[in-house]
Design goal:
This protein has 245 residues and is of the alpha+beta class. It has helices spanning 23-35, 67-78, 107-116, 147-163, 189-196, and strands at 39-40, 55-61, 85-86, 93-101, 125-134, 138-144, 177-182, 187-188, 205-209, 211-219, 224-233. The longest helix has 17 residues, at 147-163.
Length: 245
C-alpha cells in the first residue's frame, strides 16, 4: 500500500491529486495548480544553498535521455523568449529525496545507507513524462502515475531514518516532477503560463526507472551538477516489463 499524501503549503501543488494512478487526473491537477500562480520566484534565491555547498540526494538521472531529451529541447526552444535557465542535456533528473549536507553525513552513514538500499522493496517501473506544467519557480513535466514514485520515496525515507541521516521532506509532501527550465528572476506568471499552454498537446515520453542514484549535488552556473556516488538497481518484475502505451 502506498503512503498517503497530505496537503502541505511548502509543497507544490500544496494538495495532492485525487488519484495517484490516473494520468488525466494528475496532469490536470498539476496544470490547474500552475494556472493559479500569479508570480514566479527566482529559483536560485533559496535559503540554505550556495555554490560552495554539497548535498547528498537520491535522484533518478538519465545518462542516455534519448526521446526525453528531444521532447525537452523542443519545449525549451518554444520557451526561449522567456529567458529562463534551461536544464542542460546532462542535467535532466527527477529529484526523489534529500539525504543531507555532505558535512552532516559521515562516510560510515553513506555506506550504511547504501547497504540498506541494496534490496529496496520497490520493483523497477515505468512512468510517463507529460508536457507541460510548472511551479512557482520552474517549468516542468508532469509524471504519471505517482504511486510507484511515492513508494520509492517512502522506501528511501525509511532507509535514511534507519541510517540516521538528516533526511528531507516526508513522503506525505512528495510531489513528483521533472524540471526543464528554472525561473531566474521574479516575474509575472501569466506570460509563462500562456507560453506553456500550447505545448500541452505534445504526447508523453516513457521513462524507465531501473535504478536510483545517490549523488553529491552542487549548484554551478545556474544549473545543478552532481557526482554519482552509486547507482542502486531496482529489482525487475513481470509488471515492470509491461510497456506503457
Amino acid at each position: 500500500m502506498s503512503p498517503e499524501l497530505d496537503t502541505d503549503p511548502s509543497a507544490f501543488p500544496s494538495a495532492p491529486p485525487a488519484s495517484l494512478d490516473d494520468p488525466e487526473v494528475i496532469v490536470e491537477h498539476d496544470w490547474r495548480a500552475f494556472q493559479r500562480v500569479e508570480r514566479m520566484a527566482d529559483h536560485w534565491d533559496r535559503p540554505g544553498w550556495s555554490d560552495r555547498q554539497r548535498k547528498y540526494y537520491w535522484m533518478h538521472t538519465f545518462p542516455d535521455p534519448g526521446q526525453l531529451l528531444q521532447r525537452t529541447e523542443h519545449c525549451q526552444r518554444a520557451l526561449q523568449h522567456l529567458g529562463m535557465d534551461p536544464v542542460p542535456a546532462d542535467g535532466l533528473h527527477v529529484t526523489l529525496l534529500r539525504v543531507g549536507a555532505v558535512d552532516q553525513v559521515s562516510t560510515a552513514q553513506v555506506e550504511h545507507l547504501l547497504d540498506l538500499t541494496q534490496e529496496l522493496p520497490v520493483s523497477a517501473f515505468h512512468v510517463l513524462a507529460h508536457p507541460l506544467a510548472g511551479s512557482r519557480g520552474a517549468v516542468r513535466f508532469s509524471l504519471t502515475p505517482w504511486k510507484p514514485l511515492v513508494r520509492l520515496h517512502a522506501a528511501l525515507h525509511a532507509a535514511g531514518k534507519q541510517a540516521g541521516v538528516p533526511g528531507g521532506a516526508p513522503t506525505t509532501a512528495f510531489r513528483p516532477h521533472l524540471g526543464i527550465a528554472y525561473s531566474n528572476q521574479e516575474r509575472s506568471a501569466p506570460a509563462v503560463i500562456d507560453a506553456v499552454e500550447p505545448l500541452r498537446s505534445l504526447p508523453p515520453v516513457p521513462l524507465h526507472f531501473t535504478t536510483v542514484d545517490l549523488v553529491e549535488l552542487r549548484r554551478q552556473d545556474r544549473t545543478y551538477r552532481w557526482r554519482t556516488i552509486r547507482s542502486v538497481p531496482l529489482p525487475s518484475s513481470a509488471t515492470s516489463r509491461t510497456a506503457l502505451a
